[in-house]
Specification:
The protein is α+β, with helices and mostly antiparallel strands. It is 53% helix and 13% strand. It has four helices and four strands. Helix 2 packs antiparallel against helix 4.
């Protein structure tokens, strides 16, 4: 399965895993052509509550993880942004109507932000 394989996320939301949303689905339309790009899940209150609980659990685990482990995750995220920048750029252009230069900058910034975050150490106890 490709990194951006639509079968993984079409009509779903992400809360740690891709799943069907309780709130239904909505079409995403390409601004330049009016063509349907796909569908996304619409979160209901039940989805939000479930996601907030999962996010809290994840944050506690993230904060407790050693610096080297967190840094490795952020470096890996930067690596994936860079590796799949062409695929991501195509989607960004089609979904937002952004220019190639704008989306290239956004992707470059995403790589830089992940690398910078990977160097941040906690300065006070959690």
């Amino acid at each position: 399965m490709a990194f951006l394989d639509e079968r993984r996320w079409q009509g779903k939301i992400f809360d740690g895993t891709w799943r069907t949303a309780d709130g239904g689905v909505k079409d995403v339309v390409e601004p330049a052509t009016g063509d349907k790009l796909g569908t996304v899940g619409i979160a209901a209150l039940s989805d939000l509550e479930r996601s907030a609980l999962r996010a809290r659990e994840a944050q506690v685990a993230w904060a407790a993880a050693p610096f080297r482990e967190r840094a490795a995750v952020m470096r890996r995220a930067a690596e994936l942004w860079a590796k799949y920048s062409d695929d991501n750029q195509g989607w960004l252009i089609r979904e937002s109507g952004g220019t190639r230069a704008k989306t290239a900058r956004e992707l470059s910034d995403a790589v830089d932000e992940c690398l910078e975050a990977g160097t941040a150490r906690r300065t006070s106890p959690p």
